[in-house]
Amino acid sequence: MSTCENTSDPETPPASATAAGVPAGSAGTGQCIYLAVALDVPLPGLFDYVHDVPVVPGTRVLVSFGPRRMIGMVWAQREAPAIEAGRVKAIEAVLDDLPPMPADWMRMADFAAGYYHRPLGEVLLPVLPASLRKPSAYLGPRAAGGPVRRADRRPGRARAWGGESPAAAGTDTVAPIPPVLNAEQSAAWQDLRGMMSAQPGPGLALLHGVTGSGKTELYLRLAAEALAQGRQVLLLVPEINLTPQLEHIVRGRLGNVAVMHSKLSEGERLRAWLRAARGEAEILLGTRLALFVPLPRLGLIVVDEEHDTSYKQQEGLRYSARDLAVWRGHDLGVPVVLGSATPSLETWRRARRGDYRYVSLSRRALAQPLPEVRLVDTRRAQLEQGFTPQLLTSLEARLGQGEQSLVFINRRGYAPVLRCASCGWVSQCARCTAYTVLHRHAGGRRHTLQCHHCGDCTAPPRACPDCGDQDIQPMGRGTQRIEEFLGERFPGARILRIDADATRRKGSAEALFSKVHAGEADILVGTQMVSKGHDYARLGLVGVLNADAMLFAQDFRAPERLFAQLMQVAGRAGRRAGGAEVLIQTDYPEQAVYQALRTHDYARFAEAALAEREELGLPPFSHQALLTAQARHLRDALDFLGEARAVAQAMPEGAGARIYDAVPLRVVRVANIERAQLLVEADGRGALHRLLRPWLVEVHDLAQGRSVRWGIEIDPLEI
Ligand code: ADP
Ligand code: ZN
Ligand code: ZN
Q1: Which fold has domain 372-412+478-611?
Q2: Which atom of ligand 1 is nearest to the CA of 211?
Q3: Which tens digits make up the pLDDT trace of 401-425?
Q4: Which atom of ligand 1 is nearest to the CA of 361?
Q5: What is the pLDDT of residues 677-697, one digit of tens each?
């Protein structure tokens, strides 16, 4: 049998003896082993390759695919190839710088691929650090063993994933003495600890604790318990680069931590990944991407702020790290703790039904009262740059008392739009159906118009492009304009703006927050970035501007998100001293969301919202998937979705689902691409997926030969 020889690439194998690979054919057994390999290409299915010795599933391999070389992952061995044996290419090199990915990791990837209806290759490979999936790292003369060996500089590491705990790791610093738990925390601790050792097996808990109730302290104790048993801990947080405080505390208390988030350099990410995957790091603290790190001795998963939408990846594999964390814990029989002051309604409902253990902390840890929330009616107020007299008076009073205040507005830039006073022209992006936002630069002397959708940046016109009038004015306010106004209104005050623009450079967020914590700022002006997880010591007042904008957003989850966001931002106030207040300016003080906020009553809000969702058959009482299409012309996207809809309706599986009309997205055009979507909904998860599986095969065929790109999102957060 000569198939293997016939098909091996006659060119020099790129991976020589110096590369981290075993060159194809080196064993010379003459066998033909057919392998199903996952590749990160937008095609369904696995790809056949042949090798002359068996390769364990989970092993990375270098292969040629069309004109390219790629790194793929062996998924399975096959009896026979799906295509003609003579056309099957040989594997170019088996990369042995890492052991095969562990079986539980492969199971999770398999589940994710199935649940999110994506090809395996789009799951298995993109979740790895880039250097482990870039063929260039294994090619050419610089390939001195590949990135893993370069990161290691220690021989003999590739043989196995670490299964044993490192001896006396992380004991180089003296751990701070943990605080004595208060009564409520103690009860919660007993409950959660009981769950960790419960029979028949660990389960899931919702730790529902008001802001500042000391949830972190409980995570730390649970983690310490897992470490004492020689296990690893996965601690997921929504955004870590903004919360160096937590990293500092975790390091101080628990020692051996690997940190992972998107702002790391490639090398940093690889090293953190390797330390965690080999069991050298006992704690992995990270954002959603940390979920896909193999952890050989995983013993506890904590998802902090489980309601946070940043757990959902918004491109490629649109997974929910929270949901997959729950799956992973269940699969491994490892306890999972979901923590939040404002749980997602999905999680709340499960806890209420008894699927999750419900553990609550209703008071702040330091016995400080929650801040008083006041609704300031803007309908009858004389506004000065968007501020009511009440809010200005309160700011003045806090300044007088030497306390910090926070002005919260979820809109960055100087003004959301530029407008001509005489003809009504407004600044719009040429490539998107969106207004352009006025931004100030360099001490206010230079302005640009920026599109927040495509990133396009232009100089503002001097006169109206339509009528030539020179009276064009910024309309509305963003953080920069608020900062400017407050500077004029309170000349002695130190004002600090914290938003995506002010924190773009690496390290700038840390620098700004350390100023805040050192008391070098009197008034903070910030977007939602300031609200997440920060423990402010001196914050006495929070003023909320423009909350109503979110109240009437199209999305059915808008009130839930608004409630969570305002609870979070309110929760920053008065964490060390009493007498704190939150002023929410609104035209609609009677709205249920605001009334529930006034009384800090999450349960009341959640129950009302759930009742409404149940009546309307919305999640969590139904399950949804969103088919999206993108094309040059909206018509093509809509036509494609319309046909896809007809296909679904004609399928027997379609009977169990509601298939809505295809509609354009709210922002139809972004960077000259027009977008539309089609919502599919079913009462049961099973019914939804029973339709999706065969239907998406048809959708794939339907897209052939058209200039339409499509995608599927399961459990979409925004519709
Ligand atoms: P949460 O995560 O619930 O918002 P934190 O864990 O940040 O709350 O706790 C708020 C503050 O209370 C922190 O400064 C924390 O150190 C402190 N704290 C928590 N538990 C205790 C305790 N038992 N005794 C004293 N301080 C505590
Ligand atoms: Zn004009
Ligand atoms: Zn644009």
Answers
A1: Rossmann fold (3.40.50)
A2: 4
A3: 999 999 999 999 999 999 999 999 9
A4: 3
A5: 999 999 999 999 999 999 999
Mean pLDDT of 712-718: 95
The two domains 182-361 and 372-412+478-611 share their CATH topology (first three levels equal)? yes
Query: Ligand 1 atom closest to Cα of 210?
Result: 3
Closest C-alpha among 89, 85, 80 to residue 61: 89
Over the stretch 159-202, which tens digit does the pLDDT of each residue have? 577 766 665 444 445 667 889 999 999 999 999 999 888 766 77
CATH topology of domain 623-714: Alpha-Beta Plaits (3.30.70)
**pLDDT band, very low/low/confident/very high, at 243 (cuts 50, 70, 90):** low
Q: What separation in Å is there between the alpha carbon of 11 and the centre of ligand 1? A: 63
Instruction: Give, in degrees to the nearest 5, the angle at Cα 460 between 458 and 465.
Output: 110
Q: What is the mean pLDDT of the chain?
A: 90
**pTM > 0.85: yes or no:** yes
Rounded distance between C-alpha atoms, residue 202 and residue 699, angstroms: 41
Nearest CA, atom 23, ligand 1: 181
Please tell me the distance from the alpha carbon of residue 37 to that of residue 34, in angstroms, as a whole number.
9
Burial call 439-468: b when 16+ CB within 10 Å, e when fewer: bbeeeeeebbbbbbbbebeeeebeebeeee
What would the pLDDT profile of 428-448 be if each residue is shown by its tens digit?
999 999 999 999 987 777 899
CB 215 near ligand 1, within 6 Å: yes
pLDDT given for residue 165 in this prediction: 62
Check if the beta carbon of residue 69 is closer than 8 Å to that of residue 63: yes
Q: Is the pLDDT of residue 504 over 90?
A: no
User: Measured in angstroms, how far is the CA atom of residue 450 from the centroid of ligand 2?
Assistant: 20
| Gap between the Cα atoms of 503 and 496, Å rounded | 12
* DSSP helix/strand/coil, 638: helix
Task: State if residue 500 touches ligand 1 by the CB under 6 angstroms criterion.
Answer: no
Decide yes or no: CATH 3.40.50.300 for domain 182-361: yes
Ligand 1 pocket: which of 216, 246, 302, 575 to mutate (most atoms within 8 A of CB): 216
Domain extent listing, the chain: 4-104+120-144, 182-361, 372-412+478-611, 623-714
Q: Is 213 in the pocket of ligand 1 (CB under 6 A)?
A: yes
Contact 214 CB / ligand 1 (< 6 Å)? yes
